[in-house]
Amino acid sequence: MIQVGIIGGAGYTAGELIRLLISHPKAELNFVFSTSNAGNKISKVHQDMVGSLDLEFTDTVNPNVDVLFLCLGHGNSVKFLEANTFSDNTKIIDLGNDFRLEKDKVFNGKTFVYALPELQRDVIKSANYIANPGCFATAIQLGLLPLAEQGLLNNDVHINAVTGATGAGTSLSATTHYTWRDNNFSYYKPFTHQHLGEINQSVSQLQDDFDSEIIFMPNRGNFSRGIFATLYTDFEGTVEEAKDIYKAFYKDAEFTFVSDENLHLKQVVNTNKCLIHLHKHNGKILITSIIDNLLKGASGQAIQNMNLMFGLEETTGLQLKATYF
Amino acid sequence: MIQVGIIGGAGYTAGELIRLLISHPKAELNFVFSTSNAGNKISKVHQDMVGSLDLEFTDTVNPNVDVLFLCLGHGNSVKFLEANTFSDNTKIIDLGNDFRLEKDKVFNGKTFVYALPELQRDVIKSANYIANPGCFATAIQLGLLPLAEQGLLNNDVHINAVTGATGAGTSLSATTHYTWRDNNFSYYKPFTHQHLGEINQSVSQLQDDFDSEIIFMPNRGNFSRGIFATLYTDFEGTVEEAKDIYKAFYKDAEFTFVSDENLHLKQVVNTNKCLIHLHKHNGKILITSIIDNLLKGASGQAIQNMNLMFGLEETTGLQLKATYF
Amino acid sequence: MIQVGIIGGAGYTAGELIRLLISHPKAELNFVFSTSNAGNKISKVHQDMVGSLDLEFTDTVNPNVDVLFLCLGHGNSVKFLEANTFSDNTKIIDLGNDFRLEKDKVFNGKTFVYALPELQRDVIKSANYIANPGCFATAIQLGLLPLAEQGLLNNDVHINAVTGATGAGTSLSATTHYTWRDNNFSYYKPFTHQHLGEINQSVSQLQDDFDSEIIFMPNRGNFSRGIFATLYTDFEGTVEEAKDIYKAFYKDAEFTFVSDENLHLKQVVNTNKCLIHLHKHNGKILITSIIDNLLKGASGQAIQNMNLMFGLEETTGLQLKATYF
Amino acid sequence: MIQVGIIGGAGYTAGELIRLLISHPKAELNFVFSTSNAGNKISKVHQDMVGSLDLEFTDTVNPNVDVLFLCLGHGNSVKFLEANTFSDNTKIIDLGNDFRLEKDKVFNGKTFVYALPELQRDVIKSANYIANPGCFATAIQLGLLPLAEQGLLNNDVHINAVTGATGAGTSLSATTHYTWRDNNFSYYKPFTHQHLGEINQSVSQLQDDFDSEIIFMPNRGNFSRGIFATLYTDFEGTVEEAKDIYKAFYKDAEFTFVSDENLHLKQVVNTNKCLIHLHKHNGKILITSIIDNLLKGASGQAIQNMNLMFGLEETTGLQLKATYF
């Protein structure tokens, strides 16, 4: 069994990793590190674990685990790896944004691979250090990359996306108070969201002459899980030609599918799927891309990457029952 | 007291009119017409009326009321007025879309005025027949008209807006079932929403050389009331210049205000307000416009128009307590 | 105009008082005291006030206001009144629980009257110092008092009630985080809620031989506003007899009504109403009582009491439009 | 592989069975019967199946499947079995209430076993025809049976329970319209819910002198999934003694666990678990019991029963990832 360590064990993404790993047939939790919760049962924090897991949080790492997941606030992965040493055989998957950009990918002699499986599955298979993509970045890239690969992103791309409250993390804040968020709607970081960096990087990797603008409006929805993203840009072909491009791009994808029907968010909640829909109106292609921000947008994709790195079936432990309602 | 008749009394907008009129100091309900509910107490349908109103629905109209509100499905106002005759002194306010466009405004010798008070208050004051604006159309026009008046809409306008489930009417449907809509998100009628007609008409009325495209993505949110609209387009000035333009345009508005702070939907829910926020990034102005779809987007604005038509203070009966939570 | 001061201006109940007072025809805000927000616009905290109120929070009290509302955490009203002196002509309405019980009602020579209008309207009219009832206590008493007055509470009373997230106050906590509360349900303080004291006190005031137990299960619902309470106990009469008792008891009540139909919470949200429904099964009477916890359960009832104390119509400024959706 | 047929394939419980069966390692869908949807892809109705299942609904049954799940409205299982014949080797699991009571259990020579595994696992293992328990009945029995087995239910039991909107089925109705149910609360069938029959039957099976009353208030919550039930009755022992009784009763249970901490509904949503919490106050024991109404309360328990009937590990295909947020 693959021995797994989790750092930053009290947050949302760590909780999801734990939920996935307790029934993963090839991996097992070796330790879950959380200084603030050390000594407490994991089920005191991730309370659905009652009856499922007896393990306690620890403040001691095992430096010889096979794989380490970093679930820390942005900027803290670097600090943690500077302060703690692991075996050369320990693979590392960082769920933060410390190593996602080309300029940040080398750290202490380790090279982190940007790990969107649909973009570069084979590179991931042989990687030891992984920068797991951001949640908005995953939904948006999966909506754009098929066009980029064909060199068809030649005009500005307009993106509107809504994320659930888990996207803001576990810390208490005015905009995650129930009375504020219930039946509410708002935006944040208009045009300047930090995920634009990795999105532009991947688009340019596939279409090196890309020089249009990606205009991105992120919104806060009054739900807990999921990202619903709509993207449009100029496109000369028919919607059938677009579907052919997307279906070809995703022919080997285990979790990303093109739907012929309109989408709604709950089709993917609590799954590792991304669903894509295409619609054409006048000269514009409208692309809808939906994911669960904590799964395909974070912990599910991290397990997917672990599976690839360890030579397992990509879907191992990720055949999840959708909540749907 | 102004004697009021309501046609189509079982729907959302009729319910809101009733809620507003029971405490309006200058108007009173004369009859509420609903063939399917005739003889039933109004409080059997609009159940918050228990203790507030003893009136029953009727299937007989009083042709001599001072003002008639038509709360019918789109296309049915024409049919109703063909089948029923009212006094020449009866003013008519249609909440449907039968008379909103220039090509539709004359019916049986009556000329309907498009009644967005911020656009043409004085015209409304002397009108006898009113086409009350649509909900999305109200939010979007209030976001665009100040720029149009200055002739500054010279590029495509990109609009994303989310509406609550009351926007879809009272009829039962898959996408208004609780288990579907709860914690869900989706879009409908991309780029082709029927309100684009009245929006383009008003913009062109203020800026006659307008020939850009208004690109509108309407979405279904998982809340019951309200519209949150974001609009962006190219704008050369500073955000301060934009604020000056908007504040000048709305200096006499009783319900539309420019906010210096970011907005969230619940600031306006259960009020007749529209709040506007302006933000500049690179060459783009981002305009946020929020309303309650059933009040400023329908019944509240209808009462506002009634007040104007009868020479009352515009705010009479419309100083509503926000729900806020 | 009645000059009003509010202490503890940043909380939910203060916000509701402000929302009510800005359109109250006989009262006006003189000051809103909040040490943590002094100098900030009120609309920075109560953000629906944009366009409605320009006033700032202050950390200085005006000791000569006509009426003072205390919106402080439980126990802090005593502390505040020890540290601050007001005119002998200043009436005081405390929304906390410092003065609700007989043993606590005299403070510094002032006698606080427990002010549930349906229980003792005339006493309130001549009072200068008011202890405003708790939210659960209001809903439950209005469900029980008609039977108590008839001496008919002769067996245990079983109560289950659900309150919205505003019931827990504005402070951030695990159980008011959106991701926790959304689509969730839980209980708290089973059988020991602090409102039992005032409930038992009022029941015994009307039925002095009352010696049964009131068994109360309070729950947290996933909504923001409102209390839905069901109460049952043994009752020998028919449901018609019960209705007669309740209708007689509430014949002069301006806000409490008996409904012949089953109730649902949103019938009263954003109103000052209490609706009561009665149902009989075998030997038990089932009483449903619903209120808006922030209005009839707090700030609305406080204004109702102010109206009574100043000789105004009880409903002044309280004819509120229900949100309903 | 166990060949599975599903009758009534468009409803909630059929959808959940499909979600569970597509990743069950020992069973596979042979056909999904739905006359109204025959010929349509299953993913047109259960839209999360896009990318997961290509099968179509059929209006033809395969009479030789190994197991048949009946997901029909109450009363329709009898009608269906009268009109359709299956192999003598076909096991049948009825999710309706046609065969749950002793008086109904024999049909056409087949004897249906009431299949709550925690009550009579061994009987289920050798059964061919199963009456799957109701959702409320499951939550409530799991809360009461340990006391019944000890003969300790000697006083009235007071139960309050809240269910999600999926409890009402897929049909469109006023009380499942989003605008009605959002942020609302109500009760239905007070004291007379149809599940009382099977609850009393099981309690009497374990405690044959049981002659107290079970008083049950069912409520509609504004969430989609789950049942939160609180039950209290007189109990003379300590809470530790109660815990010992419950832990002993559930020592072999694979899905039912006693929690030392207070419970909240989302701990079990999208799992097959039941969590139980015990609290003592004065002479009363308060029992909380929570389940997902569609899983442990319906389709999950049906698969659990299938596993037992076919000699599989009870947990096969039921190690589900909780949604939790």
UniProtKB/TrEMBL annotation, chains A, B, C, D:
<feature type="domain" description="Semialdehyde dehydrogenase NAD-binding">
    <location>
        <begin position="3"/>
        <end position="127"/>
    </location>
</feature>
<dbReference type="GO" id="GO:0005737">
    <property type="term" value="C:cytoplasm"/>
</dbReference>
<dbReference type="InterPro" id="IPR000534">
    <property type="entry name" value="Semialdehyde_DH_NAD-bd"/>
</dbReference>
<dbReference type="GO" id="GO:0006526">
    <property type="term" value="P:L-arginine biosynthetic process"/>
</dbReference>
<keyword id="KW-0963">Cytoplasm</keyword>
<dbReference type="InterPro" id="IPR036291">
    <property type="entry name" value="NAD(P)-bd_dom_sf"/>
</dbReference>
<dbReference type="GO" id="GO:0003942">
    <property type="term" value="F:N-acetyl-gamma-glutamyl-phosphate reductase activity"/>
</dbReference>
<feature type="active site">
    <location>
        <position position="135"/>
    </location>
</feature>
<dbReference type="InterPro" id="IPR023013">
    <property type="entry name" value="AGPR_AS"/>
</dbReference>
<dbReference type="Pfam" id="PF22698">
    <property type="entry name" value="Semialdhyde_dhC_1"/>
</dbReference>
<dbReference type="InterPro" id="IPR000706">
    <property type="entry name" value="AGPR_type-1"/>
</dbReference>
<dbReference type="GO" id="GO:0051287">
    <property type="term" value="F:NAD binding"/>
</dbReference>
<dbReference type="Pfam" id="PF01118">
    <property type="entry name" value="Semialdhyde_dh"/>
</dbReference>
<dbReference type="InterPro" id="IPR058924">
    <property type="entry name" value="AGPR_dimerisation_dom"/>
</dbReference>
<comment type="function">
    <text>Catalyzes the NADPH-dependent reduction of N-acetyl-5-glutamyl phosphate to yield N-acetyl-L-glutamate 5-semialdehyde.</text>
</comment>
<comment type="pathway">
    <text>Amino-acid biosynthesis; L-arginine biosynthesis; N(2)-acetyl-L-ornithine from L-glutamate: step 3/4.</text>
</comment>
<keyword id="KW-0560">Oxidoreductase</keyword>
<dbReference type="GO" id="GO:0070401">
    <property type="term" value="F:NADP+ binding"/>
</dbReference>
<keyword id="KW-0055">Arginine biosynthesis</keyword>
<comment type="similarity">
    <text>Belongs to the NAGSA dehydrogenase family. Type 1 subfamily.</text>
</comment>
<dbReference type="InterPro" id="IPR050085">
    <property type="entry name" value="AGPR"/>
</dbReference>
<keyword id="KW-0521">NADP</keyword>
<keyword id="KW-0028">Amino-acid biosynthesis</keyword>
<protein>
    <recommendedName>
        <fullName>N-acetyl-gamma-glutamyl-phosphate reductase</fullName>
        <ecNumber>1.2.1.38</ecNumber>
    </recommendedName>
</protein>
